[in-house]
Sequence to fold (203 residues):
Amino acid sequence: MFLAFLSLVVVGIALLVAVIFFYSWKDKPERIIPDYAEPAVDDYVPDPLLTVQKPEISEAAPPKAPEREGTPENVGAQKEKKGVFIPVLQVEGEIPGLKGRELIHFDGKGSLYSLESTADLKNLEFTKDDLELVVEGRLLLTSRYIIVYSGAVVKKFTIAAIEDLRFKNSFLVVKRKRVKTKKDVLKVSGNLGDFKYILHALT
Fold:
């Protein structure tokens, strides 16, 4: 009888332990094993950065001489002076008043006048009746001289001798150094823009 009672007690304790173990194992949170195989994906996509385009830096082209009317054969080369380009013309034949290898930059027509006046150029006023014609013909502008000639009559003066100058319409009024009572007045026929550009570059 005692053995039967002892057996029941042992069986009851065993059942109690089994029930306790079962419920304690069921309530235990599952172990989460992180999946490192795939990276986390963020749904947030940042706005693309604004890119500021840098201005293209190009070498500044040097200023060009004005295009000269006529055929390209007239222009042989260009000479650089004071940061600008001056055309160099190929002129055939002998030029009166020129010696050596003088470069010619302008070839056109003009009339050279003489004007008696001691006034400053900025205050100088004149009419065509005040002018005395010296020579009318071919007008050349070289690296050193302004030349006007017709046949045997040749008039030239050096650019370095110019003390002051002023353009009045198509007339160029020149005051030469050490000349007080007279002005040189040159009327340029055609290509006045070329003549102005080259003369300013040379002076």
Notes: The longest strand covers residues 104-116.
